[in-house]
Write a structure and sequence with these properties.
- Helices cover 4% and strands 55% of the residues.
- By secondary structure, the protein is mainly beta.
């Protein structure tokens, strides 16, 4: 497990000691209402931060999607959060009209009409699109506009391999849970599984599985590392594979406490809540936000807690710079949101956060947030 250099660690610690920082809530609570819809469902930002898609829903009016202010597709009864391809050139979103659910890509329907489904996902090169759909109480996977799996009692969101050639997803049938890759079961059948992830370097398939009250990680079909007895109210979540391979991190909930595991060693302490762990671009460093108590939040970098001033409510979107030696995040203070970059407050406050991105063109930090009822975009140096 790599550590920051002395200079980098001292700089980060000194900077964040000056920050008023808040807690990363559990994902299902991480919503920031603007108008009558949470920000996380209203907006999507592409990987570069250059393009923003917005869902527009008003009372007694059709729902539409705008990309950089221009309508994409038609008018619908309901629209869910859009997603961009990795290059930002294509946008897709689920929509509902005339009693049927379907997916729209670049303004045109993809596949058939269904009873329901989950948000679509693009493959890494942006060419292929897949999603989970439902009909008659059964779930299945649709890719490139056609059904590519059998029907199951439940299916999870599909995941593409790094080269886009393989598709993996979690499923359940007759009370048993399992993971399929290109239609082939990987590993055994379990009481419960979480959606798989692909390792970006070696192509391993990783997922969290449960037998009884014990959770563990499965790697390419075999149990890997430590087993965690977490009780009936516990689980593993936020599994992420390191970008350099041979590394993984995840969050364990046990009863009412949370902790982060990196390569099967606990990172720092036990917390009331934690945000998703984030690797730096090299895979050497790991950061996440954590709540020690309701009003005592910290940023954890490689296991070192960076204490911050009391009084804030949340931290979200912990983001490394392009070479891994800078950190930025959204911080809520007194009902307003600020961006902190390694402890330095940037620009004016926002009403709600939308995203933080690294610009691929110049490596600068792109800030997208709500201010005065409109989306604002700002680009600053790391």
């Amino acid at each position: 497990m790599a550590e920051f250099t002395v200079d980098t660690t001292v700089a980060l610690v000194m900077a964040f000691l000056a920050v008023v920082a808040g807690c990363a809530e559990r994902p299902e609570a991480d919503e920031f209402a603007v108008g009558d819809q949470p920000v996380k469902e209203r907006f999507a930002v592409d990987a570069s931060g250059a393009r923003t898609a917005e869902v527009v829903e008003r009372e007694e009016a059709p729902a539409t999607v705008l990309v950089e202010g221009e309508q994409v597709g038609g008018e619908y009864e309901r629209v869910w959060q859009p997603v961009f391809s990795s290059d930002g050139e294509s946008v897709a979103f689920p929509a509902y009209r005339d009693g049927q659910w379907f997916v729209v890509r670049d303004g045109e329907p993809v596949g058939d009409r269904y009873d329901g489904g989950d948000p679509p996902v693009f493959c890494p090169d942006g060419e292929r699109l897949a999603f989970a759909a439902w009909e008659g109480g059964e779930g299945f996977i649709v890719a490139d506009g056609r059904t590519v799996s059998r029907r199951f009692d439940w299916v999870g969101t599909p995941v593409f391999s790094p080269d886009g050639s393989s598709l993996a997803f979690a499923a359940e049938r007759n009370g048993e849970a399992f993971v399929l890759v290109d239609g082939r079961q990987v590993g055994d059948r379990y009481d419960e599984v979480r959606s798989p992830v692909f390792c970006p370097v070696d192509g391993w398939v990783l997922f969290a599985a449960r037998e009884g009250d014990v959770w563990f990680i499965v790697r390419d079909g075999s149990p890997w590392g430590t087993r965690y007895s977490v009780g009936a109210m516990g689980w593993i979540e936020h599994l992420v594979a390191g970008p350099a391979g041979q590394s993984a991190a995840f969050v364990v909930r046990r009863e009412t406490e949370y902790f982060v595991v990196w390569n099967f060693a606990r990172v720092a302490g036990y917390y009331r809540a934690v945000g998703p762990p984030v690797f730096d671009p090299t895979g050497r460093d790991l950061a996440f936000a954590a709540a020690r108590s309701e009003d005592d939040w910290v940023l954890v970098v490689n296991g070192a807690e960076l204490d911050v001033e009391r009084g804030a409510t949340r931290i979200r979107d912990v983001t490394f710079g392009p070479v891994g030696d800078e950190l930025a995040c959204w911080v809520q203070v007194g009902g307003e949101w600020f961006v902190h970059r390694s402890g330095e407050m940037l620009a004016e406050p926002y009403d709600a956060p939308v995203a933080l991105r690294n610009s691929p063109e110049d490596g600068r930090l792109v800030i997208v947030g709500m201010r005065g009822g409109a989306v604002r975009r700002e680009t600053v140096e790391w």
